[in-house]
Specification:
Elements (H helix, E strand, L loop, with lengths): L3 E6 L3 H19 L3 E5 L4 H14 L3 E6 L1 H11 L6 E5 L5 H5 L7 H10 L2 E9 L2 E3 L2 E5 H11 L5 H13 L5 E7 L2 E7 L1 E5 L21 E6 L4 H7 L14 E6 L1 E5 L4 E4 L2 E5 L2 E13 L1
Parallel strand pairs: 1-2, 1-3, 3-4
Antiparallel strand pairs: 5-6, 5-16, 7-10, 7-14, 8-9, 8-13, 10-11, 11-12, 13-16, 14-15
Helix pairs in contact: 1-5, 2-3, 6-7
Amino acid sequence: MTRRIAVLVNPTSGKGRGARLMQPVSDLLREGGLEPDVVVGRDGDEAFDRLRDRVAAGVDGVVAVGGDGLVNIALQVVGGTEVPLGIIPAGTGNDIARSLGLVPQDAPAAVRLVLAGQTRVIDLGRANGRWFGGVLGSGFDSMVNERANRMSWPSGRSRYNLAILAELRTFRPVPYVLELDGERVETEAMLVAVGNGPSYGGGMRVTPDARLDDGLLDVTVLGPISKPEFIRVFPTVYKGTHVSHRAVTVRRARRVTLSSEGVTAYADGERVAVLPVTCDAVPGALHVYT
């Protein structure tokens, strides 16, 4: 029997790359003997509703053509099920795809993985009931996210970097209460990141040693540092070497609760909730084509 695949597409991702890939990806899947069913929504909520309906009607797999935000929508539908997910990276950051070893510029290679039909089981994080595949950030990084989302120029990583500089002018460390598998920790921090995967923001390896299949979440805490020191240390996050800095602490836990008044958490680049947020590592929650 022909396998039916729901193809979730964000046409606006990656400066329109999602739209440009929609037809070629569908054609490649069809040529490989699959039956693609393209799903597009006017916004994230509609995309979720339409994908949920397709999966409920019965599909053999889901393919997400877009960036981390679109993948996150797909996770809300297929997380905790046996419906496999394929990712065709077409966004700006593509951090979840990178953590799976996918090359963002090679869509045909990602399609071939779906056609091969082999899957791998990986963990997901769950924050206040919402699945995430990469990193949940709170504090400075989430405030940068909120600022960047309000900006219309520039695009891509440049907008994020500009938002970092703008936010840094007024940001102050905030008090946190962390619970790590029941252990209570009170601290001040610039940011606290909880990683199921290693990176966010287009390659910032904030939780560089996080693994997708160890049943644990990596927690990176950046304590108070001066603004000049922050600017000096910031570039090292792209290599993950920031974890050796004296102000950085890394822990691992199965359950992590973050509390800080007025701080918002983002996961996979999507707004989750104002803290407190409880994150759980859920082993084996996702089947992915790989």
